[in-house]
Design goal:
By secondary structure, the protein is of the alpha+beta class. It is built from 13 helices and 23 strands. It folds into three domains: 122 residues, no CATH class; 178 residues, no CATH class; 140 residues, Carbon-nitrogen hydrolase (Nitrilase/N-carbamoyl-D-aminoacid amidohydrolase), CATH 3.60.110. It has a six-stranded mixed β-sheet, with no helix packed on it. About 3% of the residues have low confidence.
Length: 495
């Protein structure tokens, strides 16, 4: 099963992307950590570290994708009562659900019991404890009613004719934000549970601590915890089809050849997680869709490849064009080619200390082209981020950060710092005394440090020549800078 090995390779080589929500146009996607899945949430509840209710609100339509931890059974649930460990729909979370809707309360009891085990383990997280303390109070529905998120009918029951984000109220999915005070509030960790990698890592360790019986994975040959329940949501969030299924208890699948499913087929749990999560990610990132058919090709190192539907003549022509570019050495030809489908982009290339390309970003905003530019000159499709030296970094190129919709998009990256390279030819005295404060105001709209860097040309007194300047913007202030018109190196420290 070479496709399995290729997907495992894809997952491991792109581990820096794990847990990072990116966008393809307006569509979010993410490379999931093990033992996690994505859902579309309708309600966000905010509490403090002691489990006290603060606020509740409906989820914005462009911010519904939510990463949640799952159990082996809840991750593949279609029916039955199998609670997710942290976030779930109202039936599981609300201790007062039965007061407002006909219910036997079993789902909530199962949820609380399951969560209590996590809280009492060595792998509990402060946010998990806070959510547990809050939900034990049994006031979730009341709080949502008070905030007018949930609407009641004349019988003081949840009105099942009303919906939230197109979902019937009784089936609304809830996610959590936990606000901390004191020292914890100063830590560089997002309050949103679905973005917190420390919480995700705690759950991964917790699941691994529960592993008992192990066997040989038929896909890898490794000894690991075996799973017979495998992921769905392969093509999209509503996809119920599975690639691997072994739930036939009537012996129709393996009758006449094996006695049990264990003899027939065994897949390691984490192997299955990596395979399915990698496939989900790459389909959403670059797949092509034809009704229910999804087609995707990939290269594990994310090198450029011909389009999957390209004919032989166009692939050959593209290859010959690359070969003619003798000024580029082989390494750069393999890793970076901005001549994609004869399109030209305004791009930022980030290179690490060893000369490796760690990110290629294409400007998304229009306006950089001359009026006589042909249609081959175009923009990138979305913002993205990358990891370097344990920091999450995003890029906004030149005019990208002057559009409110772009500001909203880059804020979703939740980056530690934004690189803002530009080419501007302002009079350097006017820049130093006036214009830089306009850029400060724009950078202040982003909840991350922003490193502005302008090109520096030697003939700085010439017209239409970039005159340098570099500034670290943080929380509405200029932290450090090199004035425009001065040749120097700016060294900054990112906490």
């Amino acid at each position: 099963m070479s496709w399995v090995n290729e997907l495992i390779d894809l997952y491991e080589k792109n581990s820096d992307k794990i847990g990072v929500i990116e966008y393809r146009g307006e569509i979010p996607y993410v490379l999931l950590p093990p033992f996690h899945t994505t859902v579309t949430a309708q309600i966000t509840v905010t509490i403090d570290e002691k489990g006290n209710f603060i606020n509740a609100e409906s989820v914005d339509s462009d911010d519904k994708l939510t990463i949640i931890p799952v159990t082996e059974k809840s991750g593949s649930r279609t029916a039955g009562k199998e609670p997710h460990p942290l976030c779930d729909n109202l039936r599981y979370l609300a201790g007062d659900y039965a007061k407002y809707y006909k219910d036997d309360g079993v789902c909530n009891a199962l949820y609380i019991s399951q969560m209590e085990k996590w809280v009492k383990s060595d792998f509990c997280h402060d946010k998990v404890r806070a959510i547990y303390l809050y939900l034990k109070k049994g006031t979730l529905i009341k709080n949502l009613v008070d905030r007018r998120i949930i609407k009641l009918n004349e019988s003081n029951q949840i009105d099942d004719k009303e919906n939230i984000q197109g979902i019937v109220q009784t089936k609304a999915f809830v996610r959590f934000i936990v606000r901390f005070s004191g020292i914890q509030s100063l830590q560089n960790v997002p309050d949103e549970c679905w973005k917190d990698r420390t919480l995700q890592e705690c759950y991964i360790k917790y699941v691994r601590s529960q592993e008992k019986e192990k066997g040989m994975c038929y896909l890898t040959g490794n000894t690991e915890s075996i799973s017979y329940l495998h992921s769905k949501k392969i093509r999209n969030e509503g996809d119920g089809a599975k690639l691997i299924s072994a739930n036939d208890s009537q012996n129709f699948t393996y009758r006449g050849r094996f006695v049990s499913r264990e003899e027939a087929f065994a897949v390691g749990d984490e192997t299955s997680q990596k395979v399915h999560n990698a496939l989900k990610w790459i389909i959403r990132k670059q797949g092509a869709f034809f009704d229910t058919l999804a087609v995707v090709t990939w290269e594990s190192n994310r090198l450029n490849m011909p389009r999957w539907n390209a004919d032989t003549a166009s692939i050959t022509a593209e290859y010959e064009n690359v070969q003619d570019e003798d000024e580029w050495d082989d390494e750069w030809e393999d890793d970076w080619d901005e001549k994609e489908d004869n399109k030209v982009y305004s791009s930022q290339l980030t290179i690490d200390s060893e000369g490796n390309i760690v990110n290629l970003y294409r400007r998304v905003s229009k306006g950089w082209k001359e009026t006589y530019a042909t249609e081959e000159y175009c923009e990138g499709s979305s913002f993205s981020s990358f990891s370097y030296m344990d920091k999450r970094i995003a890029v906004g190129l030149c005019g990208d950060l002057w559009y409110d919709e772009n500001i909203d998009g880059i804020k979703k990256m939740n980056a530690d710092i934004i690189f803002w390279p530009v080419y501007t030819d302002f009079n350097y005295e006017k820049w130093n005394n006036e214009i830089k404060y306009e850029y400060l105001e724009q950078a202040s709209k982003i909840n991350s440090d922003v490193l502005y860097v302008n090109s520096y040309c030697i003939d700085k007194d010439e017209k239409e020549i970039a005159k340098g300047g570099a500034i670290l913007f943080s929380k509405g202030k200029i932290i450090s800078e090199i004035p425009a018109g001065k040749e120097d190196i700016l060294i900054v420290k990112i906490d």
